Amino acid sequence: MELNVTKISYDLDSNSATTDIPVELGGNDSTTGQYVSARLIIKAEDLDTGKTLDDLTKANIVTIAKAKLVKEVTPSTTTA
């Protein structure tokens, strides 16, 4: 299934520094009728050491958001 970013926005503090980046993704598979819609928030702790949210390009944001979505939906190996 192809996932596409449908929205990127920026939340800023009083000094206009980016505090987080909400990202919306969506995709569907026309052969199965399955649909995915997700909203993730990229935070500074999601980045490599030394990077800030203001350093990110659109391509960086898309890559991070897709990786974060995979991580969020991958089942844990532990059980309750």
Task: Tell me about this structure.
With 80 residues, the chain is of the alpha+beta class. It is 20% helix and 35% strand. The chain has one helix and four strands; from the N terminus they run E-E-E-E-H. Strands 1, 2, 3 and 4 form a four-stranded antiparallel sheet that branches. The protein is globular, with a radius of gyration of 15 Å.
Brief descriptors of the model:
globular; about 80 residues; alpha+beta
Give unreliable regions as ranges: none
Based on helices, strands and strand pairing, what is the structural class?
Answer: alpha+beta
Note the main sheet. 4 strands, antiparallel
Order of helices and strands: EEEEH
Shape: globular
Strand percent estimate: 35-45%
Q: What percent of the residues sit in helical stretches (DSSP H or I)?
A: 10-25%
Rounded mean pLDDT score: 93
Task: Show the helix and strand layout.
Layout (H helix, E strand, L loop, with lengths): L3 E5 L2 E2 L5 E12 L4 E9 L15 H16 L7
Antiparallel strand pairs: 1-3, 2-3, 3-4
What can be said about this structure in brief?
It contains one helix and four strands. It is an alpha+beta fold and 80 residues long.
